[in-house]
Design goal:
Length: about 300
């Protein structure tokens, strides 16, 4: 853990500015994150990026280990439920429990491994060798519609649609409790939880990104369970899970933001997606069949 003593010449500098001078290879935003994560100690205590230095302080910085370079994913013969496929893209109904791309603890058995076996070399590489074809993500426990690109041109065009918020994304969520309003919109800032780093949170100040979710109650189920249709206008990490928790209605089975409660997973299904074909501009829309575990928990929108 490197340590630095603040000299008189550095008196008056902000803490993050001081650290930038010592570590020009790290961005200011990254250094600010390290301070907020308490990886920077000023005279043995936690501080803020904006704290002004007086001279004579001792600053200790814990630099996280650089992640290992990801290895190229290997093809694996795994079952895929294909909703649509052509020379430019493939739309799938992802099974709950399948990780989208290899990462620490999930080197195999992912959607990327399955796509490499199914598509061979026909996958985009914009996202890197361990994320071939992946344009957007779904959480491991979330089932439903996901789009993959077969070439870099399609990937770039699809990414532009996601960034421009022109992709329609509708989810089904089984939530705890009865809603006071049958429909509404949640619009907040979402960022990393200040203490629990695996969680995201609604932030009232500090870093965060705008997040907007529309919701509509479809069915109220016995046991104070509600089936909700959620429309994503933005695509933040864990957005629906965080926004439903913010409303006081966490997803059933969501251990991170609520309780497992006997459910096999978080009850969230990416039900429908609509977008323009990246090459032809044709309007495309798809609906992912609802899996049995979701239906068994009360997630059938067609049944009273």
């Amino acid at each position: 853990m490197p340590e630095y003593t603040v000299t008189a010449d550095d008196s008056g500098l902000r803490l993050d500015h001081f650290l930038s001078g010592k570590h020009p290879e790290l961005s200011r935003a990254r250094l600010q994150s390290l301070v907020k994560e308490h990886r920077v100690l000023l005279n043995g205590r936690a501080s803020k990026p904006s704290e002004r230095l007086k001279g004579g302080e001792v600053i200790a910085l814990e630099l996280p280990e650089a992640p290992a370079e990801p290895e190229a994913a290997a093809p694996e013969e795994l079952p895929l439920e294909i909703l649509f496929e052509d020379a430019d893209l493939i739309v799938l109904n992802k099974a709950a429990g399948m990780v989208v791309h290899p990462a620490a603890g999930n080197a195999s058995g992912t959607l990327v491994n399955a796509l490499l076996h199914h598509c061979g070399e026909a996958l985009s590489r914009v996202g890197g060798e361990d994320r071939q074809g992946i344009v957007h993500r779904l959480d491991k426990e979330t089932s439903g519609c996901i789009i993959a690109a077969k070439n870099d041109e399609a990937h770039t065009a699809l990414s532009a649609q996601f960034a421009g918020r022109s992709v329609d994304k509708i989810y089904l969520a089984l939530t705890k409790g009865i809603f006071r309003q049958q429909f509404g919109t949640v619009e907040t800032m979402i960022g990393r939880h200040p203490v629990h780093r695996k969680k995201m949170a609604v932030l009232t100040k500090g870093d965060g990104r705008p997040a907007k979710t529309g919701y509509r109650v479809l069915r109220e189920r016995p046991g104070k369970i509600t089936l909700v249709e959620c429309t994503l206008f933005t695509g933040r990490t864990h957005q629906i899970r965080v926004h439903m928790k913010h409303l006081g209605h966490p997803l059933l089975g969501d251990e991170l933001y609520g309780q497992r409660g006997g459910y096999p997973r978080q009850m969230l299904h990416a039900w429908k997606v609509a977008f323009a074909h990246p090459r032809t501009g044709e309007a495309l829309s798809f609906t992912a069949p609802i899996p049995e575990d979701f239906l068994a928990a009360g997630g059938n929108p067609e049944v009273e």
